[in-house]
Write a structure and sequence with these properties.
The complex is a heterodimer of chains A (about 725) and B (about 220).
Chain A (H helix, E strand, L loop, with lengths): L4 H6 L4 H11 L5 H11 L1 H4 L4 H4 L9 E3 L6 E4 L4 E9 L1 H6 L1 H17 L4 E11 L7 H19 L3 E8 L8 E11 L14 E6 L9 H4 L20 H14 L5 E6 L4 H13 L2 E5 L12 H6 L5 E6 L4 H10 L3 E9 L3 E6 L2 E7 H4 L30 H9 L8 H4 L10 E3 L6 E4 L6 E7 L2 H6 L1 H17 L4 E10 L6 H21 L3 E7 L3 E2 L2 E2 L3 E10 L16 E5 L10 H7 L11 H16 L5 E4 L4 H11 L3 E5 L8 H6 L6 E5 L4 H10 L4 E9 L1 E4 L3 E4 H14 L1
Parallel strand pairs in A: 4-5, 9-12, 17-18, 24-27
Antiparallel strand pairs in A: 1-2, 2-3, 3-6, 4-6, 7-10, 7-11, 8-10, 9-11, 12-13, 14-15, 15-16, 16-21, 17-21, 19-20, 22-25, 22-26, 23-25, 24-26, 27-28
Chain B lengths: L1 E6 L6 H10 L3 E6 L10 E4 L19 H11 L3 E5 L1 H9 L5 E3 L7 E9 L15 E8 L3 E3 L2 H9 L3 E6 L18 E5 L5 E4 L17 H8 L1
Parallel strand pairs in B: 1-2, 1-3, 3-4, 4-11
Antiparallel strand pairs in B: 5-8, 6-7, 6-9, 9-10, 10-11
Classes of the chains: A alpha+beta (about 725), B alpha/beta (about 220).
Chain lengths: ~725, ~220
């Protein structure tokens, strides 16, 4: 087939990139080779627009065993235990086919974790939909939630936490980010780097079909009115097979047969084989006629580009083939030796003994294009909000508006569709600041949370980037966990647009600064660009997934009030910052102003002091203050408990709207027993922490004298309404 | 007391139930579905999950599997059999228990803590519970809506074969306290010899105060009693 400009363009390659390919090959590629280049050089696989910026992130630390660059990141939690985790996007496929898109997103991230030898112990997700009134939102939400549940429930990994958000910026481009967390013994971690020549390359798992061909290329371009036509590029998930594959792989990993293992994710057989060879600085030869196929007459091109799910590539030690095959036979999975490692440093593809394509590995990996794209500094609009000019409302009214809004409503409609309890180690689940998962058979646990703040990132990307790391860190701290490391999923618009590239660069700057200051390294992640349709891009939405360690799990800390007449303390200073607040958005539809300032020193001190209080057993409950401000956080503590609260008039700030709805950072609400007050005061004073007693818990009502009074039951019902009607 | 947990491809509560059994002093072994012989056991547990992916119909393929012939033989000779969630679905597919489990009335997977009431505390499975005791217990299923014909329902009522019914925390059984649409709020049933119990809720998830409560403990300890 003659390669025309049209064919090149259809492969998502630019003409100058094609010229580069010819240079690297010293000839024209054939059709198969062109397909392979397109799979490896697209944004999704090559990170060509993001790589130079990602390099700046802090990725090392005392606890880091493996940073970015492997299937997932690995951190040390002591006693020869390690935690493997990563977050990944499946945005584009989920918009086109919500159920399968979301399901295979979960499947893909689970494979990344068990590929490294870890048994997955928790799933999380961050899903963003368009406006609740948008015509597609309902069916997309339905499909995505069932897809996430359908996959996780069947494979039997609990889905323990996440966020579900709505904003019109996602009307045409929803976000579906899935995170998986696994546990592995430190001396049993498996990597993807190939070693040794003439080692058998084994294909295991599902058969290869024609689904998902060019899926990664789809995720590397904007949508337009013809996006529906891309349905055939969406993969179809089979969680049952994944369960078998997981068990078979983990069984094989018990001994030392595996040299290297890689799951076939985006760009399937192509990226997995190239990745292993590239890391091992070797060549790899595949005999494609041996690939187990689901359909007849599949061509080498289709086999190499298929994104059929639930498949793995393994390089085995010599002589281990028979024992390994026995395990896969037991689980009724395909196990076929389809090639070998070579010393040629080429990817060699044979079909019926004839070489169909031959490409130097480095041309596909290290020589893939890297762009330092042009970017624009954010034009910050410092317009002040004239609060006095706004229509007067009552505090109660504003609170009800927030608690009944889709973004703050009780999400049990979503979370009840996920099995959160299977594996019997879920100590705390969705609805709290962070989920707590016990390490099986141990008395220690991890806390996990995912967070995002797109409106902060849109208005001031650097601050937004910092804020989201801090919020995630706070969410772990409130459970008593020491935050250890994060994974990030960077969802942005079109990187060829200089403003978008600017948002990306500046958000990363913020993330970097916060991670460095908090000693909270990035160990894995994923970039999703081109979240846009017809030149309209989504708000920058970096999603942070954090993991913390609870060394000794005695009494898990949650955010619901525990006792009557206990003291409520607010840690951190309240300035009353209303810019970009949920209060303005829900009550006045105003998306203006700057996000609240982030003071990393205060974040660190306040957080570490709270950990001390928890460690000394002085805390009944704790909750971080975020979107919706103090009053929303207090309501949440009441809604999930059997108590209300009486809030005292603030001594300093006079504007109660600023006091209650301001979204100032580095703040926590804690509930303590009255008799512990002096001990708590001592610790906080010693740490130079700003704090104030803001009220106490009581039966039934949530109130402030003369300002508002709502019963706990009403709060619950207000908060529970939206999804139930939906 | 010896127990055997049957493991099908796609079972995913097998480990959870094994942990619970061992915690309550059972000597347990896991039995792979391709086995043709069952070791001598006092209790056989068919755990929750998605056996064979639940393709075709929940529990349908497992109901025709090789090991299930052995389970049927053992059950017919009086061995105690407990089917939880998918295990209950499988037992109805084998005919060891009558009736069937339809999709939940809201057509969605449901995972939450619900309440059930002990209907008969004079069986091997329930003798340590109090009469009409209300338990808080976790459910996690897509097809848990129990249905059977009128004759069988009458037989179950006449012979005390209903094990548990969904209710609220005060033991009130009505539409509001019925999470999945089950006929007569039925959450679990016995066969006529009362040596087989099938139930949708997960007692193995309720044996550890750290993650939930201990309301499931007495089910396992009744068996040892």
């Amino acid at each position: 087939m003659k390669i025309t400009n049209k064919i090149i363009e259809n492969h998502g390659l630019k003409l100058d990139e094609y010229e580069n390919i010819k240079k690297l090959l010293k000839r024209e590629p054939n059709f198969l080779e062109l397909g392979i280049f397109s799979a490896m050089w697209n944004e999704h696989c090559s990170y060509k627009s993001s790589r130079i910026h990602l390099k700046k992130l802090p990725t090392k630390g005392k606890h880091v065993i493996q940073g970015p660059g492997e299937n997932a990141g690995v951190i040390d939690i002591g006693d020869n235990d390690a935690i493997v985790f990563k977050i990944e996007s499946h945005n584009h496929p989920s918009y086109i086919e919500p159920y399968q898109g979301a399901a295979t997103g979960v499947g893909g991230i689970l494979r990344d974790v068990f590929t490294m030898g870890a048994r997955p112990i928790a799933l999380l997700n961050s899903i963003h939909f368009g406006s609740p009134d948008h015509v597609k939102t309902k069916s997309l939400l339905n499909g995505v939630v069932s897809g996430i549940g359908g996959y996780g429930n069947c494979i039997g990994i609990p889905t323990v936490a996440g966020e579900t958000k709505f904003d019109e910026t996602y009307n045409e481009n929803i976000l579906v980010n899935a995170m998986a967390v696994g546990h592995v013994k430190k001396d049993k971690i498996f990597y993807s780097k190939a070693k040794g020549i003439n080692k058998p390359v084994v294909y295991v798992g599902s058969k290869t079909g024609r689904d998902g061909i060019h899926g990664a290329s789809m995720a590397s371009a904007e949508f337009d009115e013809n996006s529906e036509e891309k349905k055939p590029t969406v993969q179809v998930g089979d969680p049952f097979t994944e369960k078998l594959l997981m068990e078979a792989c983990l069984e094989l990993m018990k001994d030392n047969s595996i040299i290297s293992i890689q799951d076939m994710g985006a760009a399937g057989l192509t990226s997995s084989s190239v990745e292993m060879a590239s890391k091992g600085e070797l060549g790899i030869e595949l005999e494609l006629d041996k690939v187990p196929c689901r359909e007849e007459n599949m061509t080498p091109y289709e086999m190499m580009l298929s994104e059929s799910q639930e498949r793995m590539l393994i390089i085995l030690e010599d002589g281990k083939e028979k024992a390994a095959k026995k395990i896969f036979d037991k689980w009724d999975l395909d196990f076929v030796i389809i090639g070998k490692t070579t010393n040629t440093n080429n990817l060699t593809l044979k079909f019926n003994n004839i070489v169909q394509g031959e490409i130097p590995i480095e041309a596909l990996a290290s020589k893939a294009p890297i762009y330092n794209r042009k970017w624009l500094k954010k034009n910050i609009k410092k317009n002040e909000i004239n609060f006095k000019s706004l229509k007067k409302i009552k505090i109660e009214e504003a609170l009800i508006k927030i608690l009944s809004s889709p973004n703050h409503s009780n999400k049990s409609w979503v979370t009840n569709q996920y099995d959160q309890n299977v594996m019997c180690d879920t100590v705390q689940k969705s609805g709290s600041d962070a989920a707590i998962i016990r390490i099986h058979n141990k008395d220690k646990a991890i806390a996990v949370s995912v967070d995002s703040s797109a409106n902060y990132c849109k208005s001031h990307p650097i601050t937004g980037g910092k804020q989201i790391v801090c919020e995630n860190w706070r969410n772990l701290i409130t459970t008593g966990a020491t935050p250890l490391a994060i994974t990030n999923c960077l969802n942005f618009g079109n990187p060829e647009n200089e403003e978008i590239m600017g948002e990306f660069k500046e958000c990363l700057e913020g993330i970097k600064e916060a991670c460095e200051f908090l000693n909270y390294p990035v160990v894995s992640g994923n970039v999703s660009f081109y979240n846009g349709t017809n030149k309209k891009n989504i708000y920058p939405t970096p999603v942070i997934g954090g993991v913390g360690l609870i060394k000794k799990l005695s009494k898990p800390i949650s955010h619901n009030f525990k006792k009557n007449e206990s003291d409520i303390i607010l840690i951190g200073k309240t300035f009353g910052h209303l810019g970009q607040s949920c209060f303005l958005k829900e009550n006045y539809s105003i998306n203006e102003g700057m996000p609240p300032e982030v003071n990393l020193l205060n974040e660190k001190n306040n957080g570490e002091s709270l950990l001390k209080l928890i460690d000394k057993n002085l805390i009944l409950s704790a909750h971080d203050v975020s979107s919706g401000g103090l009053i929303t956080a207090l309501s949440e503590m009441a809604i999930s408990s059997e108590y209300g609260a009486k809030i005292l008039k603030p001594k300093k700030l006079t504007n109660l709207f600023e006091y209650f709805f301001g979204e100032d950072q580095a703040r926590y609400i804690i509930e303590i027993e009255k008799h512990n007050m002096s001990k708590v005061e001592n610790i906080l004073k010693n740490g130079n922490i700003y704090f104030e007693k803001i009220g106490y818990t009581q039966q039934d009502h949530f109130e402030m004298d003369g300002e508002f009074k709502i019963s706990r039951k009403d709060l619950f019902e207000i908060n529970d309404k939206w999804y139930n009607k939906f | 007391m010896k127990s055997s947990v049957i493991v099908f491809p796609g079972s995913n509560c097998d480990r959870d139930v094994a942990v619970a059994l061992e915690k309550l002093q059972f000597k347990n072994q896991m039995i792979w579905h391709k086995e043709t012989e069952l070791p001598k056991s006092d209790l056989i547990v068919i755990p929750g999950g998605f056996s064979y992916g639940d393709y075709l119909r929940s529990g349908a393929i497992a109901g025709k599997s090789r090991i299930i012939d052995e389970v049927i033989k053992a059950a017919n000779s009086g061995c105690l059999v407990l089917g939880i969630c998918n295990g209950f679905q499988i037992l109805t597919e084998t005919g060891l228990l009558k009736g069937t489990l339809l999709r939940n009335k809201n057509l969605k997977f449901i995972n939450k803590d619900v309440h059930i009431q002990v209907q008969n505390n004079k069986t091997k499975f329930s003798n340590k519970y109090k009469e009409n005791q209300v338990l808080k217990i976790n459910i996690a299923h897509n097809e848990g809506n129990y249905f059977t014909d009128a004759d069988h329902l009458k037989e179950m009522k006449d012979e005390d074969l209903i094990a548990f019914k969904y209710c609220d925390e005060n033991g009130i059984k009505n539409l509001n306290s019925n999470p999945n649409g089950s006929l007569d709020n039925i959450a679990g049933i016995f066969n006529s010899q009362k040596n087989i119990l099938g139930m949708m809720p997960h007692p193995e998830r309720m044996v550890d105060e750290m993650i939930s409560n201990q309301d499931g403990v007495n089910l396992f300890s009744s068996l040892i009693n």
